[in-house]
Design goal:
Strand content: 25-35%
Mean pLDDT: 78
Largest sheet: 6 strands, antiparallel
Number of domains: 2
Number of strands: 11
Helix content: 10-25%
CATH class of the largest domain: Mainly Beta
Strand order of the largest sheet: 5-6-10-9-8-7
CATH topology of the largest domain: Metal Binding Protein, Guanine Nucleotide Exchange Factor, Chain A
Low-confidence stretches: 1-53
Length: 187
Amino acid sequence: MANFLLRAFQTRNGLSVLCNNIAQFPEVKHLIGKTTSSTSPLRCLASCGRQLASKKFSEAELKKRLTTMQYYVTQQKGTEHPFSGKYDKHTAAGQYECVVCGEVLFQSTDKFDAMCGWPSFNKTATKTGVAEHIDTTYGMIRTEVTCNCCGSHLGHVFNDGPPPTGLRYCINSASLKFSKISESDSS
């Protein structure tokens, strides 16, 4: 991909990606028009590389390893009932990881109570851990968030969060795994 030329420009509705010789790179076609306004060209390139090296799991392996709710949420783009998830009111210090692949997604320091019934975060742990996609299901236009490493559905992001980001990542508890920060990690 050394000769791959990628140009990106901001539009009112998000980031548009123009590639020359796209036919030579079918593995990145899925990125065109799928990123959002908060995605920079560099993030798009990072996303492209991560998508090519993403973790894939068989359906049988996932059904054996995940609970019914975890499978429904992460693989079938389901949503758990509000106020039913174990991380909605969770306040311990640590990090939230993808339940499927273990990718670090969110930090407890960025979690807040949006009183919506799902864990809410005002930013992601890294710039490349979470991917954003337009979601037009149920007659709404929303931004879906998925694990950028394995593609698992996490929830949605909205522009009604607290400062400084103004974002609210509304995430299903079933898509998360929590790792507590040990005393040695915090010193």
